[in-house]
Amino acid sequence: MGRRHAENLARSPSVDLVRVVDADEGAARTTGDELGVEWSTSFDDLLQDPRTEGVVLATPTALHAAMVEQAAAAGKHVFCEKPIAIELAPTLHAVEAAAAARVKLQVGFHRRFDPDWAAARERIARGELGDVYLFRSSLRDPRPPDMDYVSGAGGLFVDVTIHDLDTARWMVGEIEEVTAVGAALSDPAFETMGEVDHGIVMLRFASGALGVIDNSRASGYGYECSAEVMGSQATVRIDRHRRVHNEWLTAGTASVERVMTFTELFQDAYRTELESFAAAIREDRPPAVTGGDALAAFMLACACERSLHEGRTIRLEREEGPGGTAYQLQAIEAKGGSR
Amino acid sequence: MGRRHAENLARSPSVDLVRVVDADEGAARTTGDELGVEWSTSFDDLLQDPRTEGVVLATPTALHAAMVEQAAAAGKHVFCEKPIAIELAPTLHAVEAAAAARVKLQVGFHRRFDPDWAAARERIARGELGDVYLFRSSLRDPRPPDMDYVSGAGGLFVDVTIHDLDTARWMVGEIEEVTAVGAALSDPAFETMGEVDHGIVMLRFASGALGVIDNSRASGYGYECSAEVMGSQATVRIDRHRRVHNEWLTAGTASVERVMTFTELFQDAYRTELESFAAAIREDRPPAVTGGDALAAFMLACACERSLHEGRTIRLEREEGPGGTAYQLQAIEAKGGSR
Amino acid sequence: MGRRHAENLARSPSVDLVRVVDADEGAARTTGDELGVEWSTSFDDLLQDPRTEGVVLATPTALHAAMVEQAAAAGKHVFCEKPIAIELAPTLHAVEAAAAARVKLQVGFHRRFDPDWAAARERIARGELGDVYLFRSSLRDPRPPDMDYVSGAGGLFVDVTIHDLDTARWMVGEIEEVTAVGAALSDPAFETMGEVDHGIVMLRFASGALGVIDNSRASGYGYECSAEVMGSQATVRIDRHRRVHNEWLTAGTASVERVMTFTELFQDAYRTELESFAAAIREDRPPAVTGGDALAAFMLACACERSLHEGRTIRLEREEGPGGTAYQLQAIEAKGGSR
Amino acid sequence: MGRRHAENLARSPSVDLVRVVDADEGAARTTGDELGVEWSTSFDDLLQDPRTEGVVLATPTALHAAMVEQAAAAGKHVFCEKPIAIELAPTLHAVEAAAAARVKLQVGFHRRFDPDWAAARERIARGELGDVYLFRSSLRDPRPPDMDYVSGAGGLFVDVTIHDLDTARWMVGEIEEVTAVGAALSDPAFETMGEVDHGIVMLRFASGALGVIDNSRASGYGYECSAEVMGSQATVRIDRHRRVHNEWLTAGTASVERVMTFTELFQDAYRTELESFAAAIREDRPPAVTGGDALAAFMLACACERSLHEGRTIRLEREEGPGGTAYQLQAIEAKGGSR
């Protein structure tokens, strides 16, 4: 992702890419040379460079929170891949550090920038669906990542479902309850690690609407990122993503090629999210995805984890912060009584 | 449905329709005359007619269980619309009465007879999906039925979800846990009656696979009956049911006509399920959908109801009966501990 | 087809099937016994039976014209498979004989009775397309018939294209010019016989609209019967016929099953065309497809054949007959000058 | 298109955009300033600039041929929008001038660079279709251009069909015969000008395969650029281009948004064709679309025009040039005899 972001920034008509930084000197040099920009192995140098207005972090998750804080301390705006951390405390700390330093913090929920999703959300926002009754989304990878990645990823809900939780909030609104189940099906290693590779989450929105998310680390057939929002006036579906528009016919069968990877599907979105981040800096307005959004999705993912382990619905309390844009989840409570 | 069944029987190449019975004399006469068969208002007469081998019940749900028992007592095979009853005791009693009398009891889970579903199930049964990881199904009506119907329907799970629960068992296998949420969204009358018009149910199969069902009484856009079964080797989807195969293009838009009603979609299935019932009688073999199947789907629906009210996962115990074909749900336990 | 028609008639709610006739006694007996009706090997007996109001002919093409005339002479209405003959003189003679005897003559252009096509045609007839600019249709068989059939079929245009020509007239209106090309591609036997197995025909309608038809005897992938009508206000497409609504997903691919045979696709249409014929008799009105329609499509097919051989556009003259419903093609002229 | 090309070049990772030139000083300045490159109103200055390796022409068609010759004389490689001219003589002259000067001449047949088309072509080239039997393509604009444009465009075949003719050659191979019809349907102005706004062309390939192209200047529903190639082993279709992957459901209807303009559909192709041109210069190899290709498509379009006016099939003679890559159409003959 770091390489991809660097390429998009190098080609952007609205951004000057100052420097690429990689702890691996070889990687830093190669990327810098190929893109025709300075390179270094020092994040500090980057932060001290007065030409730098913002930084884009695509480092391992374990480094995100500290680097967000460093950037904030240096007064640099930060774009950070999700999740900020796999624990609540550092996530909260990083978000607060950015807020206190008044730097913009944007998190990599790229789906919000995809043309399909943006078009659907716009029509929903205009009220064309009427009252929303049901939200449904699927996020599936064709094959599990390697187990080293899995062990540091914070679990399926924090690693994968977090995207759907953000999408749900963005498209339909705040969420008050989650109920989750999960299973380890594709590889015994998941069970050994106490992890699941398949999960389903039911949502109850503040509006009363219901939602359901399904996730798989082993769909086999390809990468799936699809959704449906059903309302009283209309329903919208985003799905059937093809690699090319070609249909291939052989005896008795018509087939199409599907996308296999998220990079293939979200090529445009990865470019657009950085353009949007740059525009937020340039125009001094809140980024399209805030630290508050990152925190909200993270806490919802934690609630899913708790629901999975306790076999019951988890309710979340929200409180609007004084800053207006802040979103806080104060408490998570198990719900075991009657409806 | 009674009229539809009678027409299908009258035109069947393999069945002789002996008589139509309706408590309403006018309806009985009209139907009998139009189809060119005897008519009467007395169910007893029908049961005593030695020419009658089997009866098809499309009466109000409240009458089903007693009529199944009467038919069993008279030694007649019975086809009964689902559900047999909206309470466990009469359901169980009716199923046992049919078993004791050694008459065949088939329940109206018509989806099993639809060409799309049958083709998918056959490929699953042949192992073409590999290990099943995920089952997903949607059943949605465009508009709520009238509230009189709703009040006697036994709730969304017993009235609607029961079809998806049967499909889940039929396609993937036995179910061990259900977790349900629901909401009253389209009409305040649902809330007043303590009912929901939208529901989501998560399933854990005995195989370990997960499942999810969503139901709506107010989809607005049309009748939806779709499913997906995802496996390690392949995934099958049944959806996008159109009224005609035509695409209509106007400036910037391509549209197709969807089915609006279940009778439109399942025309063939309604005919085939009766042919299958007749064949089971003729060939003296168990019907394709047994009383045990009806009981299992009903108890799963009851477990959903309990999960909805308690906000937690419900586990069901199964025990294979001595008859081999019997399926029993012995107990339902709330699950509130760790996974 | 004879067997299929007999089955549909035996099950029809509005028709009494009196008798099946087949020159092959075994076939006649088997069909009659299975359907529970009389059988015989004599067409004469059938014509002399006073109970017979109409006959359905599914004999070899070479017998059609004479049998239509016999039926007309006996005062029986006739449903005849297309084409009436592969020469103009017997076609014309048979049509005129039926007209003179005032018996109804319906020809087997079954596509007019298919729900998809009927729905499209109805919307066109209501003016929803505005002015029609372009008609396009494809009719393709997966594999060539055996060469004996081909040698007696009258050529691709008379055997296959005739269906599209009828559809074009029915949907858009009268045709004034045809221009055809063809090629023998799948099997050298076609070339040896002076036949083509692929053909394309361009049409100019009396309204000014253009049309194009393509036909293949060797599509390989399946049976194709699709069309598009493009108008100033809207465009309609009929295509993508599937065997079941299932989508099958494997790594990187989503596939659906297509129809392979015309009997599979037009099951309903074959039933409906006979119901429509019976209704025309019962209600004493012109059949939905007249002898005039058969004659028009046949003459258009002949014009295609001439265009293919002469390498130029062929213009047809029409003259409305005194009966109002009559359609006559008086002359075919080659057009070789400027537009 | 000039602006679009300039933007793509300015952002290209492999090209240095030296200068933008526009006869209109204001346009030149605006574009140059926005893209951060030099600007001028003089084509001569550009040609004399030693830094310039190649030029991209998006001027009015009437200027193309002369500018190609100027560029060739200056030893600059040329990318030129199609057609080079609307007459044969200047087209031929320009192609020959580029060849004589040994500069690369690439023509803007962008479809060859679209991912859908390129993927289909690659599978065809690998032989996956077996023997090709049928080629079909549609190119349609939603609304006619203004009549000033039409009057200088060289007719429908030279302006529009030329793209399909190039695609047909590229995908299936050389063409030996064309037969065309056309009509003026959407606006009486076309007839007044002796022009058509709808056309259909049938092709006979050197391989024996048949082809058909339909074009419209007034489809109403949107921009259409679709194709089908049917072979003995498989068939490929490229169609159903959507703006977004969203499906919108309202009562009884499911609709998708289609592309309305060619710029929307071919965004990637316009970028890729210039990258390909730059790579051909850099690697000193023939461009992906040569002057010979431009000439061939142009002569086929002229043959269509002649067929339309004479009402007969036109046969084209080819002769392979000494350079190996050269393609020449020596003669066009009317075919009016038997096949």
Total domains of chain A, how many?
A: 2
CATH topology description of the largest domain in chain A: Dihydrodipicolinate Reductase, domain 2
What's the CATH class label of the largest domain in chain A? Alpha Beta
Over all CA atoms, what is the radius of gyration of chain A?
20 Å
In order across it, which strands form the biggest sheet of chain A? Answer: 11-10-6-9-8-7-14-15
The low-confidence runs of chain A, each spanning 5 or more residues with pLDDT under 50, are 322-327
- The number of helical segments of chain A is 12
Short description:
The structure is a homotetramer of 339-residue chains. Chain A is built from twelve helices and 15 strands. With 339 residues, chain A is α/β, with parallel strands linked by helices.
How are the secondary structure elements laid out?
The structure is a homotetramer of 339-residue chains.
Chain A: H1 2-11, E1 19-21, H2 25-35, E2 38-40, H3 43-48, E3 54-57, H4 61-73, E4 77-80, H5 88-100, E5 105-107, H6 115-125, E6 132-140, H7 147-151, H8 156-171, E7 175-183, H9 188-192, E8 198-205, E9 210-216, E10 224-231, E11 235-238, E12 242-250, E13 253-258, H10 262-265, H11 267-282, H12 291-310, E14 313-320, E15 327-335
Parallel strand pairs in A: 1-2, 3-4, 4-5, 6-9
Antiparallel strand pairs in A: 6-10, 7-8, 7-14, 8-9, 10-11, 12-13, 14-15
Helix pairs in contact in A: 1-11, 4-5, 5-12, 8-12
